[in-house]
Specification:
The chain contains 15 helices and no strands. The chain is mainly α. Helix 4 crosses helix 15, helix 5 (about 85-115) packs antiparallel against helix 6 and helix 6 crosses helix 9 (about 180-205). The longest helix is centred in the first third of the chain and has 32 residues, at about 85-115. The chain is globular and about 75 Å long. The relative contact order is 0.13. Mean pLDDT is about 85; it is low at about 1-15.
C-alpha cells in the first residue's frame, strides 16, 4: 500500500470519489425535474407578483376609483413622491432602528440559549420545548397578549418593574408613549422569535467535533476560552445565516405594530409605523396601488442590498474536502 493510500481517510476518499465522479447525461434534466414544482410555485407566488409590482409602480393604478377607472403611465413620479414623503422616511427610520437593535440582540440571546440547552443537564429537552413554544404561537396572538401585559394599570410588566424597583418606578403607558412604543414592540418580537434562531445555533453546536473541546481541556483552556476560540469560530457560517435571516424578518415587521395600531389606544402612528405597514395602508387603505408598488420595489431593493452587504462583509468559510 502506498504512503498516499495510507494517509487518506475513508471520508476523504469518499469525498474525492464523489467529486471526481463523471456526470451522466441525464443528471441535469433529473435535477430540474425534481426542482420544477418548487420553481413553479416560486415563480407564480413570488417572482410574478414582484414583476407586476415593478410595472404598477410606474402607473397611477388604483383599486376602485369613481374618478379614475383607467391606468395611466406616470413614469418616475411615484418614486419622486416617495422621496418627498415624510411618512415614508419616518417609517424607514423605525425599520432601521428596529433592525439595528433586534437582529444582534436576538442572535446573541439565541446563541446563549443554545449553549445552555446543549449541555447534558437534566430537563434540557423540556427547556428546548419551552423556549421554542413562542415561535409556534401566531404573532397576532402574541401581540394581543403582550398588549395586555403592557397595560398601564394592572399590567404584568408594570407590576414586575414596580416589584424589582421596590415601588420607586412609576407605571409606564408603554403603548401610548411615543418614546417607548417601538421598544415595547422590540421586546415582544425578540421573545417570540428567539426560539427559532436558538434551534439553528443548536444544530450548529452539535456539529462541532467534541475532540476539539477535549483537546482544549487538556491544554488547560477555561470554558470562556473554549467558547471564544472554538465555539464562535466554528459557528461562523451559522451566525451569518442567522444574522441575514433575522435582518430580513425584522425588516418585514408588520403584524405586531398593526395589532397595536388597531387597538385604538396606541401612540401617534409615526412613532412606530413601518414601511410594510405604510405599503398596506397606501395600497389597500387609500387604494393607491401604483404608489404602494413603488414603495414595495424600493424597499425590496434596499433590503436586498443590505443582505448582500452583510453576506459580503461576513464571508462564509468553505469546508475543505
Amino acid at each position: 500500500m502506498s504512503s498516499l493510500q495510507m494517509s487518506s481517510t475513508p471520508a476523504a476518499g469518499l469525498a474525492r470519489a464523489v467529486r471526481h465522479r463523471p456526470r451522466r447525461r441525464g443528471d441535469g434534466a433529473t435535477a430540474w425535474l425534481f426542482a420544477a414544482p418548487a420553481t413553479a410555485l416560486l415563480g407564480v407566488f413570488l417572482v410574478l407578483p414582484f414583476l407586476m409590482a415593478v410595472v404598477l409602480s410606474f402607473t397611477n393604478k388604483r383599486l376602485i376609483s369613481a374618478e379614475e377607472l383607467g391606468t395611466n403611465y406616470v413614469g418616475w413620479r411615484n418614486y419622486a413622491r416617495l422621496i418627498e414623503d415624510e411618512a415614508f422616511w419616518a417609517a424607514l427610520k423605525n425599520n432601521f432602528l428596529f433592525v439595528a437593535i433586534v437582529a444582534p440582540l436576538q442572535s446573541i440571546f439565541a446563541l446563549l440559549l443554545a449553549v445552555l440547552v446543549n449541555k447534558p443537564l437534566a430537563g434540557s429537552h423540556l427547556f428546548r420545548t419551552v423556549y421554542f413554544m413562542p415561535v409556534a404561537t401566531t404573532m397576532a396572538v402574541v401581540a394581543v397578549i403582550w398588549s395586555l401585559m403592557y397595560a398601564p394599570d394592572g399590567g404584568v410588566v408594570n407590576r414586575f418593574l414596580g416589584f424589582v424597583s421596590f415601588g420607586f418606578m412609576a407605571p409606564q403607558d408603554w403603548l401610548r408613549d411615543p418614546a417607548w412604543v417601538l421598544y415595547a414592540v422590540m421586546v415582544l418580537s425578540v421573545w417570540q422569535g428567539v426560539g427559532f434562531q436558538m434551534l439553528v445555533f443548536l444544530a450548529g453546536l452539535q456539529s462541532i467535533p467534541a475532540d476539539l473541546y477535549e483537546a482544549a481541556k487538556l491544554d488547560g483552556a477555561t470554558p470562556w476560552q473554549q467558547f471564544r476560540f472554538i465555539t464562535v469560530p466554528m459557528l461562523k457560517n451559522t451566525t451569518i445565516f442567522v444574522l441575514i435571516t433575522t435582518t430580513i424578518y425584522a425588516f418585514q415587521l408588520y403584524t405586531q405594530v398593526q395589532v397595536i395600531a388597531s387597538s385604538g389606544t396606541a401612540a401617534p402612528i409615526d412613532s412606530f409605523r413601518t414601511v410594510v405597514m405604510l405599503m398596506v395602508h397606501e395600497g389597500f387603505g387609500s387604494g393607491k396601488i401604483g404608489y404602494a408598488s413603488a414603495l414595495s420595489v424600493f424597499f425590496f431593493v434596499l433590503v436586498l442590498a443590505i443582505s448582500m452587504l452583510q453576506r459580503l462583509l461576513l464571508k462564509e468559510e468553505r469546508a475543505v474536502a
